[in-house]
Amino acid sequence: MAFLAYSLGKREINQYFSIKNAKLLSVAAVILLTLFHTFSRYYGGGDTCEWLLSSGRYLGETVWQPYGCMMHKYKNTEAKTCLAEKRVAFVGDSRIRQLFYSYIQIIDPAQRADGRKVGLVPLDFLWYAEVNNSLKERLISWRKVKRSTFNQQTWGWSIKLHGGSSEALQQYRANLTAISLPLEQLAEDGEVYWVLQDPVHEEGLSDNRKMITNEQLELYNKVVLSTLNSNKKNSKARVRFLGASRQAAMETITQSADGLHLPESTRNVAAMVLMNAVCNKVLRPIDGSCCQALPAPSLLQKLTACVFLGSALVFLVLHALGRNRSWKSRPTPPDVESGEEKKPATAASLLNHKAPFQALCKMGLIMVYFYLCDRADVFMKEQKFYTHSTFFIPLVYMFVLGIFYSENSKETKLLNREQTDEWKGWMQLVILIYHISGASVFIPVYMHVRVLVAAYLFQTGYGHFSFFWLKGDFGLYRVCQVLFRLNFLVVVLCLVMDRPYQFYYFVPLVTFWFVVIYATMAMWPQILQKKANGSGIWHVGILVKLLGLLLFICFFAYSQGLFENIFSVWPISKLFELNGSIHEWWFRWKLDRFAIIHGMLFAFVYLVLQKCQGLSEEKGEPLFSTRISNILLLISVFSFMTYSIWASSCKNKTECNELHPYISGLQILAFILIRNIPGYSRSLYSSFFAWFGKISLELFICQYHIWLAADTKGILVLIPGNPSLNIIISTFIFVCVAHEISVITNDLAQVAIPKDGGALLRRLLAAGVFTLGLLLVSRIEDKEISLLSVF
Fold first, then answer.
1. How far apart are alpha carbons 423 and 441 in whole angstroms?
2. In 349-382, which positions are buried (b, 16+ CB within 10 angstroms) versus exposed (e)?
3. pLDDT tens across 280-291, in order?
4. Annotated catalytic sites, by residue?
5. Rounded Cα distance, 388 and 106, in Å
6. Which protein family is it in (predicted)?
7. Do residues 216 and 162 touch, judged by C-beta distance below 8 A?
8. Cis (ω within 30 of 0) for the bond into 525?
9. How far is CA 280 from the centre of its chain?
């Protein structure tokens, strides 16, 4: 009954909620959210510096998350680079001195804080427990020297000395008014930060501090906020208020040793907030979105925008012409012979010409959303924070859904199309959960996900070897179709998001290995199944080819210098460099270097066994005899358990990654056997996972910018203040966008890659000229950046 109700419900739901309607809903959501965030930013106070300095929350016990933006964790080398030409002074009492010590620990963790120069950074602490004329004179003398001043006056001394009287508060207001002008003058040329008074733990205060209460401190805070920055005419000369440490201290002050001074973890938060406020605009870290201005679009980004705008204009013109013709043309009489109505040739021609421009127009609109999410200052971003629950609970939900949507498979062959789509689908969903939860910090999960990436490459080797072995189609059309479908989205993103090709590392990796597989199978002698069936010697020949490929891989794996020299030659280097280095490409290539050959070898053995009828692939029957099936299943389960135990004992990613290429293939083989040996298992598949598997490449690439944020370093926030609802909405939009891009890519592939050989060669020539132009423009921009950095 439940299954019948599910089937009827599914049929009824599909009448009203299709993927087309889902996409329309996602478009409406994007428009509304964009308007909401735009108005919130520009009319409700959208300064990320204010967000950083004023508010936030703890993720866990020690990780501080500013409201709406990401805080970079500065290393000592970065801090020294940023502050090398700045003069920094901390002014206040014992509380600000502790903040000063925490700040020094960022710059030089090994150096003792003594108020002197830290490395190359002039860093001072000056004791001023109260606001007075002496402080005013000091501020006036600093007017001649450009410096960033972190200034906190601890009113605890005023409260302590005067018993918290109202007269003391009024005197404090008068003294503060006297120094407000010098402070604002300092802020004109430098940066001035006033640290608002943190709360105290009243029960933990000593007897001589009992008069310091949170109520009194709050009164003094209000005086500061109402007195400073009173000159509205000079908006540049603003003293910034640090209230984030005060908010953090509200959760941690009970851990204070004396009730007055903050715990070390809270002081570290305040110091890192100040470092981000000063240095983010200078160093522009990708995971430090607070206090960063929008970068100017590059030349390539501007040219790409022009191409999309031009496509939109052509589409509108063709659409208008098509409508005019349809209004003016008379109804065409039906064809007597076929009984079908013929369309006018001109209308059909316009329709054929309009389709690619319509697809490009849609792609341009989608790229606007990408740009708004991860390049424009519209949507919020937050840091990742890993907990076991944020990874494993969604994982359980996902697999329950996948099992619930199980259906009978049309085929019962090993690794049939529905099963491979299912495999890619659940692996992609696991990887998505892994990325958004920040699970890479947990080494056992990291190692298991590494196997999933190897499995993708295994499928690449298996699928392309099977195609070439069975069909022998080495034509240019097939190659260009594969390369276009793999690279279209990434090339567009490289232009729109101003990122190098290697940044989207998986696509260069799959593209490279496809070319290697093609070269291996296409080179003389071309050995196909038809040829091998005539003589068994050809089976040995294909094994020799695979052995040669293995030796080729091993040679480069143990020749890093040669590898880097080859891929560092221009223009090849533009495809494989990341941040001016080939190291990332070397790491990714080496990590899964045997996965492709594992897939090719498995495909060869399977197809030979299938041809020799060595497998039983009928519905409901085990793949091998009962005895062999049970032994293989037992070995496979034992292999899984052994790997999980080993991965759980990993203490160092580097050491475990060294072993990964040699053992990942065993886990992939174990999964294939467990999934395919039982006949009932081979006869079912999850339509839920298979649907995602069909758009797995688009999901993997799109997550970089419209689900994650800051180039995968953070999380996109569409719904602030509600993480669960934010994930639901952003995921819904993300999946709809990925599906639409998949449709657009397939449509454009039919137009961009014609079957006619002459037309295809002309387009390849045009594509080559276009690529060369992009490389030249990129090289010119690199030289201009180098010259700017020199001068």
1. 25
2. ebeebbbbbbbbbbbbebbbbbbbbbbebbbbbb
3. 999 999 999 999
4. 94, 258, 261
5. 29
6. Belongs to the PC-esterase family. CASD1 subfamily.
7. no
8. yes
9. 20
